[in-house]
Amino acid sequence: MSFNTISVIGLGYIGLPTxxxxxxxxxxxxxxxxxxxxxxxxxxxxxxIVEPDLDKIxxxxxxxxxxxxxxxxxxxxAFLIAVPTPFKNNDSTIPEPDxxxxxxxxxxxxxxxxxxxxxxxxSTSPVGATEQMAEWLAAVRPDLSFPQNAGExxxxxxxxxxxxxxxxxxxxELVENxxxxxxxxxxxxxxxxxxxxxxVQGECVITNxxxxxxxxxxxxxxxxxxxxxxxxxxxxxxxxxxxxxxxISLANRHPRINILQPGPGVxxxxxAVDPWFIVARTPKEAQLIHTARKVNDSKPHWVxxxxxxxxxxxxxxxxTKTMQEVKxxxxxxxxxxDIDDLRExxxxxxxxxxLNMHAGTVMxxxxxINVLPDSLSGLELVDFGTGNRADxxxxxxxxxxxKSATLQSKYLVDTKGIW
Length: 419
Ligand code: SAJ
Description:
It is a single chain. The protein is of the alpha/beta class. It is built from 15 helices and 13 strands. The protein folds into two domains: 5-202, NAD(P)-binding Rossmann-like Domain (Rossmann fold); 219-414, 3-Layer(aba) Sandwich (Rossmann fold), CATH 3.40.50. Helix content is 41%, strand content 13%. Strand 9 (328-331), helix 13 and strand 10 (362-365) form a beta-alpha-beta unit. The radius of gyration is 24 Å and the shape is elongated. Residues 124, 163-167, 219-220, 223, 227, 260-261, 263, 266-268, 270-271, 335-336 line the site of ligand SAJ.
């Protein structure tokens, strides 16, 4: 049976591009989101997120009638769940995954499920979440059979197929990346491959649901551990008066060494979050992964201490100046270079801390945004030339505009090593 109508639950950074890709292949796509503003925006043929090339694809899909957005699920042949999996809001030292969005989404689609449907969990999830989702579906629909009880004969097939696309390159990577397909049975996997082959040109590699869940967590934990290694090196080198950037470029000349780049900390929704899903599940065993998280989370504090030191050195060497007269410029607010995404950004958090602790003027230079978020009231958004006239300079993101500029100052905290 082919897939004529596909429903995507959660129209955010992953769900919307995925829905748009299916629609661009002339599939009828029903996007579902609880956010009325997002639904209205999409139905006008516009987008509510920033992702290169996505606006045109969504506009065409909506205009041609292949994509529509709604707030409550309608029948379809396949359902892809792409909702957030944040942390639970408790005081635990190890943050625990919150599956309530997945639960709500599965309980919302359950009433419209029919025999032959496929349900795919795309959200990054702790090991066991797909089996849990199948239980939630079965609890609402005792009249249908599911893989956990009926195996290959299930009425509804269930799989985990994690998204692995890089923000800023989503449209290309959705098509080109290999896809891990973790069906609860072989038939669930085969049906999922058939679905993704609508637009995926990469290889669809089959495994089981638990391994697929762990594969996604492993990829992001691997990157987190590697960045932690670079961040720890930068702190060691600072103490030993060695240029960490030169050191890494020398070490990387070894044919089997590829050290990543230090920075102000690790941001975004993925690398700084997903390793906790492993640590929360296996706290005794996940020692290295846990330590890497702590190393990366502590890097912003180290940067702030460096800024404090630069301010006190400046005041010592300029005794006529008062603290109120010292101007600090922070270069970059986004969570990584050449994007406008400020969510979970170490650069933003460091700038906020500097703003809170410093009595004088704090300026931000962020070429990718025009308006500052409300939480930064008191901060001045200025151009590069104005920032240049500050007393203390804090480079937080290696945006291309900063890389092509030069800045020389005795009072420079350069977390990306470009000046
Ligand atoms: N960073 C460094 N040093 C580096 C590389 C990155 O400090 O050498 C920092 C960045 O500045 C940023 C953070 O790490 O703050 C994360 O950036 P990123 O580019 O490594 O990753 P994300 O969060 O944009 O996307 C990741 C990707 N995962 C991997 O590369 C293994 C992407 O493929 C995933 O789909 C995405 O997470 C996700 O959704 O899980």
